Amino acid sequence: MEKAKNLKDVYNLFDPMVPLRGEYLKAFYVDIRPTLFYGLKNSIQISESPDKILLSGYKGCGKSTELNRLCEDKDIKERFIPIKFSIKDKLDLFDFDYKDLLVVVSAEIYNVLKANGIQMDQDILEEIRRWTSKIEIINMKTTTAGVDAGTLLDFIFGKIGGWMKVEDSTRTEIRTSISQNVSNLIDIINRMLTYIKERKNVKPVLLVIEDLDKLPIESATKLFFSNILPFLQLNCKIIFTFPFALMVSTEWGIISKTFRKPIILPNITIHDKTGKVNDEAYRIMKEIFYKRSIESLITERAINNCIRYSGGVVFDFIRIISESANVAMVKGKEKIEEDDVEKVVISMRDDYAFLTEEHISKLNEIYKKKVARGEEENNLIRDLIASLSIIKYYNSEEWFDIHPLTEHLVNR
Predict the structure, then answer these.
(1) Distances in whole angstroms, Cα of residue 66 to Cα of each of 42, 71, 270
(2) What is the signed CA dihedral for 395, 398, 400, 405, rounded to 10 degrees?
(3) What per-residue string of b and e applies to 280-319 under the rule 16 or more CB within 10 Å gives b?
(4) SS3 (DSSP) at 58
(5) What is the pLDDT of residues 186-222, one digit of tens each?
């Protein structure tokens, strides 16, 4: 992959909505937290248990890119069949039920095995057919589509994700059917997983479920606190993303003990608690730019401002770069300059227009004390974390600061 050679290239190569994968990952990836990645990779490889792993971090910290890297890693692919999917693509985030996710997990496993040419035992296929035949809405859809018995399961599992995402009535009926016997669906999934593990020259499954961190916090709490047991019973390793704000909920103490130590991807700590710049952190963030672009497309002061205003959040850094390139192009420039960045930053402050006086009062307190705590204020702090209004940093200790884009709201 070639680096950006003009501002149009910068705008396209710095798309904040697209995580790195494939050839882009190989060409543009910057290893900003090697210890965490190799720790996760090593634990997956050496553990003989079907571990269930929680992974989180602030929005834009690079979770998707790190998970892409893990699933594309040569050593991991030699040991496992990685099955990675996003619930955003398969389910309605605002009408979420754990039974929907179980259905999608079963479909993803079936589809990947089919794609890899792994033929399942006829007894398992027959059990899956019996399960689907008990759901009237699925029978109706297969009959209407004129699907023959030979392609029945391929059709159902190829379509069921779309049905669960956009069809309210289908989603409701399938939930109702599953509610009567969740254990039957778990048994079907486990039979598929066990069959894979017992086949000669066939690798076990590593399941990676992305974007659970984008669920409303109430839905995420219900999943990980009340309804996680069926997933813990699945006979494979699973990585779950989860909302960072869940860590300040009253249920977190119990949730965290249900799993091995949760893995948190930190933001880049660009300054210490006193505000002193971390030169190494600035170097790393500049490397993110210079990996994708020739150096002459941005001035030194402009890139320093991009870093400062990002707060060390990679998503925001990428977004500021991309939008600044667009502003500079409109002005007829050939490089990003300081005034282009300032214009973008002013417009991005609108992202925080929802903050109330209560929020702003809390921001003032965190800005001065670098601490976010208070049992009675959990919901308030949770809102600020979820909206990226405050950021947690890690040096020799954990501490909080407000996002630089909210600095204009506080009394200094």
Answers:
(1) 14, 9, 20
(2) 40
(3) ebbebbbebbeebbeeebbbeebbbbbbbbbbbbbbbbbb
(4) coil
(5) 999 999 999 888 887 789 999 999 999 999 999 999 9
Cα–Cα–Cα angle for 400, 307, 301, nearest 5°? 140
Q: Half-sphere exposure of residue 251, counting CA atoms within 13 Å on the CB side?
A: 18
CB-based contacts of 251: which residues, under 8 Å, 6+ apart?
Answer: 221, 224, 225
Q: Name the pairing type of β-strands 390-394 and 263-265.
A: unpaired
The amino acid sitting at 30 is V
Summarize pLDDT for 132-151 with one digit per residue, the tens.
888 889 888 888 888 877 78
CB 101 within 8 Å of CB 209 = yes
The one-character DSSP state at 271 is: B
User: Cα–Cα distance between 100 and 129 in angstroms, integer?
Assistant: 18
143 φψ region: left (φ > 0), alpha (ψ -120 to 50), beta (else)? alpha
User: 127: left (phi > 0), else alpha (psi -120 to 50), else beta?
Assistant: alpha
- Non-local CB neighbours of 139 within 8 Å, separated by 6+ positions: 132, 133
Q: Where do the structural domains in the chain lie, given as residue ranges?
A: 7-15+268-352, 34-265, 357-409
Q: β-pairing, 390-394 with 81-86?
A: unpaired
DSSP code at position 129? H
In angstroms, how far apart are the furthest CA atoms of the chain?
Answer: 70
34-265 CATH choice from 3.40.50, 2.40.50, 1.20.81, 3.40.630: 3.40.50
Q: In what order do the strands lie in the sheet containing 237-241? A: 81-86, 205-210, 237-241, 52-57, 263-265
Which amino acid makes up residue 17?
M
**Amino acid code (one letter) for 52:** K
Cβ atoms of 264 and 56 within 8 Å: the answer is: yes
Q: CA-CA distances (angstroms) from residue 39 to 43, 47, 60, 265, 271? A: 6, 12, 21, 12, 25
Alpha-carbon distance 310 to 320, whole Å?
8
Evaluate whether the domain defined by 7-15+268-352 bears CATH number 3.40.50: no
Q: What is the pLDDT of residues 85-135, one digit of tens each?
A: 999 999 999 999 999 999 999 999 999 888 888 888 889 999 999 888 888
Average pLDDT over residues 297-313: 97
Q: How far is CA 406 from the centre of its chain?
A: 24
Write out the two tokens for 184.
């039957």
Distance CA 132, CA 54 (A): 31
